[in-house]
Amino acid sequence: MSLSLCMTSWRRRRPKARYVIWLRIDQKSSLKSIYHAGYEPIIVEPVRDKDALITNVESVNRIVEQRGEEILCVMTTTSCFAPRSPDNIEAISAICAAHDVPHLVNNAYGLQSEETVRKIAAAHECGRVDAVVQSLDKNFQVPVGGALIAGFKQSHIQSIAQAYPGRASSVPSRDLVLTLLYQGQSVFLESFSKQRQMFLKMRRKLTSFSENIGECVYDVPENEISLAMTLSTIPPTKQTLFGSVLFARGITGARVVTSTQNKTTIEGCEFVNFGSHTSEQHGGYLNIACSIGMTENELEELFTRLTSSYAKFVRQLANSEQRAVSSGRRVTSNPSFDLEND
Ligand SMILES: *Cc1c(COP(=O)(O)O)cnc(C)c1O
Fold first, then answer.
1. Residue 342 Cα, ligand 1 centroid: separation in angstroms?
2. Recorded E.C. number(s) (predicted)?
3. pTM of the predicted model, to two decimals?
């Protein structure tokens, strides 16, 4: 809704605009925010750079050059699931400045990462950043429901605030103020450096786990929140089941992403392989993320459960194949996996 509010507030300034250039991120809210504001997305898929999916800067540049005033703004995203990289906001802000097109940054959970904040400041220095929108719950450990719209100019924020219809609920602001007062400056700032420490630790642990089981962690150097590990040792048809086993064991933040040719329709737009941020096919992977507030104990517990769940899963998989072979039948259904929380 806050992304929408920014876009609607720019309507009068850009009367010929019909489109928003949207750098594909497989998160429904950000796409819906464009339609909600009354615009249509021009979808730009990321390009592969080794393991990472990065911004197709040339494509954005070409579209901005061709369409000019028909473009309301370019929407970039700085926080996302690996192997998608945060968008190259420095390059996009330079293009936006050169063609006088607004640049809206979806910084959903990026505020917790110092590196992301540094990049936003750099993007502002080398070009144009009109508004940066972030969720309160994802960055400040408050309940879901609020967002913070930030900008580099008071007047930019004022004109967005003035576009808001109604008086709004004071609850998200109240929760944020209470939380900040409770934490104080040092605890508040500590939680950000702790996130970075924990992320680096998570990456080391996942790398070593992946080496033990013959998998590997995607190398996405710019993504300092989310990690992806290949799942080549689990057949593609069994990967979703593995995901549900993890969920049943209380690993609720991990997500298995499988590759499909299926199309998903959102707001009338068709996406191949929705969830992967690209229509390109891949071998399936597991996502885990380290967000603000994660503790050492939680990290240890995650890897204890992940290690044992994986071992049990591949063992049961091997057993069921063994049984199928010895009884001379083909495996057509899923073996009965024990989904109990042990
Ligand atoms: C969470 C998220 C949103 C939506 O944020 P809400 O605070 O839930 O409205 C939008 N885009 C991305 C990339 C997100 O991760």
1. 33
2. 2.9.1.2
3. 0.93
